[in-house]
Amino acid sequence: MKNYDNVVIFNHPLIKHKIAILRDEKTSMKEFRELVEEITTLMTYESLKKGVYTTEIEVKTPLETCTQQIVKDDSVAIVPILRAGLGMVNGVHVLFPLAKVGHIGMYRNEETLEPCEYYCKLPDGIEDKLVLLVDPMLATGGSACDAIDLLKKRGCKHIKFMAIIGAPEGVSKVAEAHPDVDIYVSTLDRCLNENGYILPGLGDAGDRLFGTK
Ligand code: PRP
Ligand code: URA
Question: Which positions are catalytic?
Fold first, then answer.
């Protein structure tokens, strides 16, 4: 895959360790859910090194008063792409407990692999927040591209997209369609199969999170 200025692939050993367990078909639904949350917290920490809204406050230590930077907690909004993105929300909330949550419902048509939007509810004032769009899987990139289009139509200017596993096809598609969006992927897999599933991947993230198959 080409290098893109707006794409970061983490390849962090701790995250890779957790992803190895996540991929395993024997991993239970409970463990899968917990791992998705933990990986998301680690990804959020890394992704928000830059671009977070901060403000200055005065702090009185036992010795003197100093000016300190704090993160404006409600300046972040989390937007999961349903269903599987829901599994990542708590992982961001660990670091941003006051972040409001919007929901974008999309499913892939299993034949065309095109995303179909079925739900959208976003918090008031989202256009002024840093929006963390989350979905564990970035396959063809269709769902992420459409979700970003939707957020931009709502006036969002500052969007970061986090996916746990990405396929090169999907990462390139989103990076080229939205060069102004920072894309964070924990690990880049080999390719898509003929049904649009990521290889080696982890199967269907929504089914594994919610036990639907
Ligand atoms: C999965 C996944 C992404 C999408 C990725 O959702 O959670 O939203 O596929 O594929 P793409 O990059 O090719 O668009 P799915 O459509 O299976 O819906 P679900 O989360 O409800 O299971
Ligand atoms: N959605 C998933 O849940 N898994 C894939 O491999 C591709 C899309």
Answer: 108, 112, 204, 207
